[in-house]
Amino acid sequence: MIPHLITSSGDPVLELEQRILEAQPSIERWFRLEWMEHTPPFYSSVDLRNAGFKLAPVDTNLYPGGFNNLSPEMMPLAVQAAMAAIEKICPEAKNLLVIPENHTRNTFYLENVHTLMRIFRQAGLNVRLGSLDETVTEPMHLKLPSGGELVVEPLIRNKLRLGLKDFDPCTILLNNDLSGGIPPILQGLHEQYLLPPLHAGWAVRRKSKHFHAYDDVAKKFAKLIGVDPWMLNPYFAQCGKVNFHERHGEDCLAEAVDSVLAKVRKKYKEYGIQEKPFVIVKADAGTYGMGVMTVRDPSEVKDLNRKTRNKMSVVKEGMEVSEVLIQEGVPSVERLQEAVCEPVVYMMDRYVVGGFYRVHADRGPDENLNAPGMHFVPLAFEEQFNVTHPEAAPGTNGPNRFYMYGVIARLAMVAASYELERTDPETELG
Amino acid sequence: MIPHLITSSGDPVLELEQRILEAQPSIERWFRLEWMEHTPPFYSSVDLRNAGFKLAPVDTNLYPGGFNNLSPEMMPLAVQAAMAAIEKICPEAKNLLVIPENHTRNTFYLENVHTLMRIFRQAGLNVRLGSLDETVTEPMHLKLPSGGELVVEPLIRNKLRLGLKDFDPCTILLNNDLSGGIPPILQGLHEQYLLPPLHAGWAVRRKSKHFHAYDDVAKKFAKLIGVDPWMLNPYFAQCGKVNFHERHGEDCLAEAVDSVLAKVRKKYKEYGIQEKPFVIVKADAGTYGMGVMTVRDPSEVKDLNRKTRNKMSVVKEGMEVSEVLIQEGVPSVERLQEAVCEPVVYMMDRYVVGGFYRVHADRGPDENLNAPGMHFVPLAFEEQFNVTHPEAAPGTNGPNRFYMYGVIARLAMVAASYELERTDPETELG
């Protein structure tokens, strides 16, 4: 199942694939050295866009859902990576408390939580679920479509520690992105490991900080393998004060769109690319694919109709959009049965553990695919990420392609690690 | 492909399987704690014997061959484990020198070396081969049946470092068990990592030291999960001065056989086992399944014919047997198409990366299967080691069985770690 890839053999992405394969030992060493200096996020998923002429991360999720979309063959890798992660953080750990999102009616999400629990159990932890929802005062039993059930329990907080009834965890894993703000119950937990740290949540996190860090990573990495950093990095700009409802900040937005489009146009010219440039406008703190818009001309952001303005104004849990990211759009050339798709890569600790294609039959190659109507196609086993076939011709080999995805996704993970260091409130104070 | 297992539901091995599954989180935590105190061997393979009523390691190899017998699906796990191992030992490493056995005509062995090289390349190292054979003075090109070739190069030693022409490795990995003694060219390499350490080679290593260490491990582990340590540990005894040619030491041998058989008989009685006890007599420093004999009665070791005495006298590379191990025989109840088989489990760093069945159609359940005529059946993907199905009934589920194999094999790896600590000449001097 190698998705159809529209490229001809002179295309830069094939050059990128070839450079990456040739440099495999130095790339892996480079990652080793990065991880000596920086701590990888506990887990992450990265959305990639493959334009044929460039391959770039467009979103890095530090509270990955969708583990249930990985193929069962990925489980052993995920378990092994989880073992490595636990060993480093808290080898004496017996108990892991997972705090999921409050979507107790989204059975896809519940299956994700179930898969995560399974991974950590297999890695040797007692795993239980605690809810941030204050209306959960008794253990709540949630049936799963695959059979079995989840039990979500009320959290119990004392001065220093967070746990459940008869359950004192060493580590607390958030699978809740804190879009609604940082709840007091999670604050001041200095005795326990809280992962990811609170400043990774959308209450604090900004995509622009991530992509600033990614600029640095892409520059270093591109130098290592001898390519133009643009081949793996989308341009972006940001606007700090946008209010779509009140039509504030439209000028800033139009200017930013214009500037990003101009830069992209220049690169397209340099590489002889015939596509029409576009940008993606999205909430700097947004998530779930909400508040995302494709823009091909600066004038478009000045004439937003009420519907679009409403859509852009509100993201998850009612946050008002005010900071906006304007990101170079990377058209997707990947297709599964004619539908546009994009790879999503899952990582745990420093390891790529699996991935799938997000597919959307009703969307164009220049649109956000993370939207109702999407579905997921797990990568088959032969498409594992870490075993390459350097002798195969560029663009012809699934594992080589997936290795390349894994490399670019790990670059985004390195960027997330820089980002979390730079935004760590404790470091800032020190 | 779950091999046929002759057990009925009241059997102790099923109890063992159930105990192991129930205790999975505490078992994994126990391993984590062991690896906090002890360093796992870089790689290892363990031969297991499953008697239905007990499951035990009978041989632990610290220079594993046979990586080519693992199924291709295991590669990603092996690569990930190799990454973890390298990261801990020498994260800045660029170059790995592998020193293989001198069997340049054994194409099975060459395929093993090829697979190992592939694993380490994928993990991000430049890998080259150096030969201990002093007749290798020019790079030697060896064709592989699977296509491709190996290049074995002459070693270059200066005062402090070992390498090849234009190749200065950070780490030297031995895949040569040093049966012929420790070559001077490997001595005094204090600037480079030499793995496994020289005292792991058969020039120094003794099986009896390994099984003494395993006694300690099995006792601790059996207490953890609440079973009789005998269920996972074969009795053994040793004789220090045996010369089969000159018929010295036969009394010691007969006495040891008698004492082990008596202990086994007692256990068989305790558990109502109807089998006839036997022991395996083997060279304490032997390898490759040479010099191995099944004995059912002490009298048998007193009337050895010339052929058997010759067989027992000489093991690999002409070493004379003088120290002998007398190990409780564990009859194998595992069958693949009527042929007797035994699982072999491969580990890298602390992780189980794969395994296969060693199958021998012409051998009985109480015989050594590591002998000409054996063949190997890789474990299929569904038989991965680290993902269990706790809800399945004991004895009915492949993954659960293989998890159990992986646990017992890792116990032998912990024992190897104790053994190498105890026999480390530098610690002894200190």
TrEMBL record, chains A, B:
Protein name: Glutamate--cysteine ligase
NCBIfam families xref list: gshA_ferroox (TIGR02049)
Domain of life: Bacteria
EC assignment: 6.3.2.2
Keyword Ligase: yes
Gene: gshA
A single GO molecular function term of this UniProt record: glutamate-cysteine ligase activity
Pfam families registered for this protein in UniProt: GshA (PF08886)
Keywords, alphabetical: Ligase
